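step: validate -> pass
step: tokenize input -> pass
step: predict -> running
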Amino acid sequence: MTLRGLEVLAGADVVACEDTRRTAKLLAIHHIKARLASYHDHNAARAGPRLLTRIGAGESVALVSDAGTPLISDPGYRLAAAAIAAGHDVVPIPGPSAVLAALSVAGLPTDRFLFAGFLPSRASARRRALGELASIPATLVVMESARRLVATLADMAAAFGPRPAAIARELTKLHEEVRRDTLSSLATAIAEERAESGHPPLGEVTIVIGPPPRETIHSDIETNASDQLLGAALATMRPGPAAVAVAEATGLPRKSLYARAVALKRGGAG
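step: predict -> pass
step: emit ->
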């Protein structure tokens, strides 16, 4: 907790929070007495307008999340958006962030990263989401439930290959833990530990995954570009001549271009 955060909480007319019991404990530790109001996913439609009315009347509202920075994978963004739309000031009071904390200790590139939030809980949807993320040329940060960690790591290893990764658990808390290895090694280790203990790891989990190898990125770019050229050529040519034309223009192998042209012509995924 920062000194500025304590000052804001002590001076707010009302503190909006996901769980009043949790926030009450935080305030008690710092000897702050404040009026609390419940604001979370399930009551946002009712509680949001009431808070906006108070702001409109000149009161200050401090928004607190249960864990981490408010509005990052958090229902508070709706309140912030509504306050901005109403012309009110929205001021950030930085605090702990699992995304940035995990990035800072993962030992992976941080010059470009994508926060993908929570993946879908259903296996098929999760695998589709990972497929969409696989070729993004950036470090990925994903939140995951501890009980789904084994399945998610296995899916990540299958989708991304042997990329370096870090699993950060309970960041900034008493049982903080960071593990670094390849995705496949982490998936195997966590699965074995789960089998031995009979229960998933405890706490909140943040997974950081290194970017794809440069040659993979280039391969994806080449594939997308050749598909566009083949698509244009197929509008007026058969697959054979289209493959020849694109091969001459790009220097790519004619045989592989022909196979791709046939797949595109048939409407297949290739």
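step: describe -> Residues 214-234 form the longest helix (21 residues).
step: cleanup -> pass
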